[in-house]
Specification:
By secondary structure, the protein is α/β, with parallel strands linked by helices. It has 13 helices and 15 strands. It is an enzyme of class 2 (transferase).
């Protein structure tokens, strides 16, 4: 079926607010490694990986074989009312990797659901509906997670079950503190946090939730150590720290397994999803036992941690660890960052190059430095025309996001860099002509 025909059918039955990439949207028909082929036969190097979800890549034998073995048992589902060996084994491994003392794990089906669960635990444990969140943040599309999302374009409703106070710190590029040194930036953000607690809350706040690198917000990357300094203030008030690792987890940032580790702190809870399942729907919360066990009512997750998802996720996690994909992310991420920063120096339309590991962003700007979402949209299209799929985001829709599978090779990284260089040059010419 041609893309045009499928697009017509899509628009007739799917919600208008369900976003699609590209002027002419595409469907994936097959994939292998880091490459996808669309329904009309064109092949692309995938540098967005299903929004950071296909972390290991496509058609990985070790993962596919594990999933097939579970399918062959005939048991695709049993619910959490029954014991599930793969669920327990996966939880044991994740708890150990978390660094959280006495950790327990609860599985969900998505990052949104994981963050909803973390909010429920924190508000119940602290007996407070007050939450601190970062400006420019994104935590999901459900009722409470929309309420703690600090990007207007992704906040569908002003209604919320929690009361939120907004803190500076995550998005440095357009922050009022942007021209400060790292140390002074951290001090200014810590002072802001303290003032927010003392002036906009009753003091008994349930938690603060942070993304170590803001995903939808355009891979905004604060200075290392910021959240460690935040934690010192939070501890004075007994406020819990939740690290949203839906996009930064599993070694993607290269230097650490969890993004929050760059800040020298162990959070009270970690939420995860995306890359763990390598395409299978799975998410979850890791928390210390007293926090995880604080609910006084019965609860289950019908599909969370089901046998198929946990079998595939366990195979994905084992593959990631055995092949040291964290080191690969560090190596190739540094290579890409160096190359892109050199390109940015030659083309001012790229105002900022940031990120860590295989989580890299380009913020596009106009001649006056203002956000340039049209340039970002043009770069998305130019890259696709040359055979590279990238992502888009940012508060103003002016950021290109790069997050390929962590099995990326050096040759593929160099090919992507060449395509991006050509695409940026083409966009720069268009901006100049206007």
């Amino acid at each position: 079926m041609a893309h045009r025909e499928l697009l017509t059918r899509h628009r007739s039955v799917m919600p208008k607010w369900l976003a699609l990439y590209y002027d002419q949207p595409i469907e994936f028909a097959s994939a292998s490694g880091r490459w996808v082929t669309d329904r009309e036969g064109r092949t692309y190097l995938d540098f967005f990986a299903g929004i950071l979800t296909n972390a290991i890549g496509y058609d990985v034998a070790e993962i596919s074989d594990a999933v097939r073995s579970q399918i062959d048992t005939g048991v695709l589902h049993s619910s959490t009312l029954y014991l599930i060996q793969s669920q327990v084994e996966l939880a044991e491994k994740i708890a150990e990797l978390s660094g959280i003392p006495d950790a327990k794990v609860f599985f969900t089906n998505s990052g949104t659901e994981a963050n909803e669960t973390a909010l429920m635990l924190a508000t119940q444990h602290r007996r407070s509906e007050q939450v601190l969140a970062l400006r420019n943040s994104y935590h999901g599309r459900a009722f409470a997670t929309v309420g703690i999302t600090g990007i207007r374009g992704w906040s569908a409703s002003a209604l919320s079950p929690v009361k939120v106070s907004w803190v500076h710190g995550g998005y440095r590029y357009r922050s009022p503190f942007r021209d400060l040194s790292d140390a002074d930036y951290v001090r200014a953000c810590v002072a802001d946090l303290r003032e927010i607690i003392e002036t906009t809350t009753a003091g008994d706040v349930a938690c603060m939730i942070v993304e170590p690198i803001q995903g939808v917000g355009g891979f905004a990357t604060p200075p290392d150590g910021l959240f460690g300094e935040f934690k010192k203030v939070l501890d004075e008030y007994g406020i819990l720290l939740v690290s949203d690792e839906v996009q930064t987890g599993w070694g993607r940032t290269g230097e650490h397994f969890w993004g929050i580790q760059a800040h020298g702190v162990v959070p009270d809870a970690i939420t995860f999803a995306k890359g763990l399942g390598n395409g299978l729907a799975i998410g979850g919360v890791i928390a210390r036992a007293d926090l995880m066990d604080c609910l006084g009512a019965n609860s289950i997750s019908t599909f969370g941690g089901n046998p198929l998802a946990t079998t595939g996720a366990l195979a994905s996690l084992n593959y990631l660890l055995e092949h040291d994909l964290q080191a690969n992310a560090a190596d190739l991420g540094a290579r890409l960052l160096d190359g892109l920063r050199a390109v940015a120096q030659a083309h001012p339309v790229v105002g900022d190059v940031r990120g860590k590991g295989l989580m890299i962003a380009l913020e596009l700007v106009g001649p006056d430095g203002a956000p340039h979402p049209a340039a970002a949209a043009a770069l998305l299209e130019e890259s696709r025309e040359r055979g590279l799929l990238v992502g888009k985001g940012g508060l103003y829709g002016d950021v290109i996001r790069l997050a390929p599978p962590m099995t990326l090779t050096r040759a593929e990284a160099d090919e992507a860099l060449e395509i991006l260089t050509q695409s940026i040059e083409a966009v720069a010419k268009k901006v100049q002509q206007r």
